[in-house]
Design a protein that fits this description.
The protein is mainly α. The chain has 2 domains: 34 residues; 36 residues, no CATH class. Helices cover 65% and strands 0% of the residues. The protein has 4 helices and no strands. Helix 3 crosses helix 4. The longest helix is centred in the N-terminal third of the chain and has 27 residues. The chain is elongated, with a radius of gyration of 21 Å. The N and C termini lie far apart (56 Å). The relative contact order is 0.08. The model has no long low-confidence stretch (mean pLDDT 81).
Length: 81
């Protein structure tokens, strides 16, 4: 059992090292991870459209060609200001 645990630990470490190397290589190429930023002006316009129409958040995101996940993550919030 201890040999299997040691092999598993080595595999985890290798995977972590490869992931770190991939992130560094992407950074060197000018790539960043994560969701792209939305311009505040566009976000404000989408929020106004969402609040003043009968469209759902998903429909507003589709209008602006944003990912569907942004509908609940951004437009449905009451944290404007």
């Amino acid at each position: 059992m201890s040999i299997m645990g040691a092999v598993s630990r080595v595999e985890r470490e290798l995977k972590s090292e490869r992931a770190a190397a991939e992130r560094e290589a992407a950074k060197a190429r000018g790539k960043t991870g994560g969701r792209p930023r939305i311009e505040p002006k566009k976000l404000e316009q989408a929020r106004i459209l969402y609040e003043n129409s009968d469209q759902t958040a998903a429909e507003v995101c589709q209008t602006w060609e944003w990912e569907r996940g942004l509908s609940s993550a951004i437009l449905s919030r009451n944290e404007w200001g």
